[in-house]
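Long-time lurker, first post. I've been practising inverse folding by hand and with some scripts of my own, and I keep getting stuck on stretches where the structure tokens seem ambiguous. Below is the full token string for one chain I'm working on. Before anyone asks, I'm not after the true native sequence, just a reasonable design that respects the backbone. If someone could post their per-position residues I'd love to compare against what I wrote down in my notebook.
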């Protein structure tokens, strides 16, 4: 397999408690913080694999106590580091300036609600205005900002006003994804009734044109659900406008993900599945490259990337389909498609 990026999970702690986040099952333990020595070792491995980009992930990466040291180290290795943050720490202008001074000129911020109330409903924290201030700090320091918004039926009615206000203060690019609650306890009828994916998708499609116009077409959409659930015509239109964003590491197999202990995992949400251990299965870049191209690793990805239907493998629209495999733990493809009716 040809991995081209590295992903380093720096921690599992977070200053929010998003009710749909997979990380809630980690317990947000402070001891799950990667030692700087291990992080630097992984950077060296990625350098040996000729990776040019590293994604620093969490938890919440801005809470990593050695973040600036690690970014400086990646810079010294001519590797570009980037991360997605909830933006709360950027409320501190000094912190935002330090990030930018360390070469992070393009900042991705995940906004967990479209107004203070929906933000609090999702995260349990009254911190919406802190994130907005953080966005304004970054923009005033001449950084470019991409705002990611996870959409649900709780916040989508306020999406237009949110996008308008963010665009007015200088946000130039937006990314939208659709909520998947990593909760396997409800039955499929209960889950679908509660999340109402069809209603969510149809509401977004009804306001897409206005959002596209407001943002001067600078949007990207992670579809989350199958292309046929969206409607092939709509997905093809997004693709033709370069607005369809791929995000499944299981399907694309371009991002090599390390957890807080340096173990390899196939997907951040599948953090319990460890298929390679640092210092045991590999210690050098050459050993890591050989290991990643082994039959065992290929079989691991094949096992956990689940296509929802047998017909998917021969579907002509498969290249446009980037649905999250995790959702099939709650319902089947047939059950999801029946919900359209």
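-- Answer (accepted) --
I ran through it position by position. Result:
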């Amino acid at each position: 397999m040809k991995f081209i990026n590295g992903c380093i999970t720096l921690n599992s702690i977070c200053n929010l408690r998003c009710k749909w986040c997979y990380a809630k099952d980690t317990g947000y333990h402070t001891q799950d913080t990667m030692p700087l020595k291990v992080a630097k070792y992984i950077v060296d491995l990625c350098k040996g694999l000729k990776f040019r980009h590293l994604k620093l992930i969490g938890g919440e990466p801005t809470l990593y106590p050695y973040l600036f040291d690690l970014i400086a180290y990646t810079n010294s290795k001519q590797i570009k580091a980037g991360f997605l943050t909830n933006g709360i720490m950027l409320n501190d202008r000094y912190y935002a300036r330090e990030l930018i001074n360390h070469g992070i000129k393009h900042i991705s911020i995940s906004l967990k609600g479209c107004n203070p109330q929906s933000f609090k409903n999702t995260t349990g924290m009254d911190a919406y205005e802190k994130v907005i201030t953080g966005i304004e700090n970054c923009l005033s320091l001449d950084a470019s900002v991409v705002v990611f918004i996870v959409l649900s039926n709780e916040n989508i009615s306020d999406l237009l006003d949110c996008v308008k206000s963010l665009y007015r203060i200088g946000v130039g690019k937006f990314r939208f994804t659709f909520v998947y609650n990593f909760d396997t306890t409800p039955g499929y009828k209960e889950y679908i009734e509660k999340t109402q994916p069809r209603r969510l998708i149809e509401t977004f499609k009804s306001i897409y044109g206005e959002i596209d116009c407001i943002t001067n077409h600078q949007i990207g959409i992670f579809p989350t659900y199958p292309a046929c659930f969206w409607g092939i015509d709509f997905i093809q239109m997004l693709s033709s406008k370069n607005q369809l964003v791929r995000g499944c590491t299981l399907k694309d197999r371009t991002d090599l993900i390390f957890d807080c202990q340096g173990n390899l995992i196939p997907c951040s949400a599948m953090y319990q599945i460890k298929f390679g251990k640092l210092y045991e299965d590999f210690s050098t870049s050459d050993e890591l490259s050989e290991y990643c191209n082994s039959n065992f690793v290929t079989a691991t990805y094949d096992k956990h990337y689940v296509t929802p239907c047998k017909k998917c493998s021969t579907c002509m629209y498969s290249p446009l389909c980037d649905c999250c495999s995790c959702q099939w733990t709650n319902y089947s493809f047939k059950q999801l498609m029946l919900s359209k009716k």
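A couple of notes from the structure itself: Strands lie at 5-9, 53-57, 80-85, 106-111, 144-151, 173-178, 219-221, 255-258, 264-265. The chain has one domain: 5-338. Happy to go over any region you disagree with.
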